[in-house]
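Researcher: First entry.
Model:
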Amino acid sequence: MSAPHTDVEQVEAANTAFYEALERGDFEELASLWLTPSDLGVDETYHDPADTGVVSCVHPGWPVLTGRGEVLRSYALIMANTDYIQFFLTDVHVSVTGDTALVTCTENILSGGPAPEGDDEELGPLVGQLVVATNVYRRTPQGWKLWAHHASPVLAENDDDEEDDTPA
């Protein structure tokens, strides 16, 4: 029998599962990784699920999305309009305090747009993007679940800027 996972290892596994579900376009898996009112012990019959343990998400360039329905709709939209996406995570840091965990990372994203007109076999051009992200997890009886995701683009340095900084 192997030793039990530490909280940090469990959070790392939950974070990896989130990105892998997104890469595969597995909406059901992705949805299962986000907090629900029942994860918090709230009976949805008597409480508005949108007001309970509100989850939130900020995609690069989007306004803040709040509530499980709004957040999950955004992922359904992204999945429906992205033929290919892959995340290479770097600078991953996990911090756990009690039942809350914070993951910061850099998302090195490679994505493909729609295929050229009339070509069902090929992806459109691949585009790379660098994004920094913060994912907040909460411990539930079913394991660590996403409470919030916030991603912000990293502005690339312009080659001209580098030349201006060089001493003459």
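Researcher: Second entry.
Model:
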Amino acid sequence: MSTLENEKVAPLSNYVPKVPKEIACSIERTIEVIGGKWAFLVLRELFSGTRRFGELQRQIIGISPKSLTDTLRHLEEHGVLERMAYPTVPVTVEYTLTPKGEDLHQILKEMKLWSAKWT
């Protein structure tokens, strides 16, 4: 474990990063936040910008509406994305990554590079 500088940060929020005092070697917490297998594909689509539910469903081949809904809710609960509903008929709903979600981009790029190199 490594120790980082003790810095004070703003009150805890889903959008304000913490400055960890120690970094554990386990990645369990990250995997818990990212969620299941569909989360990576949802994130991939949202790295390109805001998307509607139907756009996400068309771009992610094989995902059911229930799986997409569950994945979006999970990521929203963990502060990775924001859901914006607009009062139209029918309701227009858009999904956008938060700063916390955008911060995952480099991690997923590295995973993509690893896959290209080794699989």
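Model: Note on the second entry: The chain has a mean pLDDT of 86.
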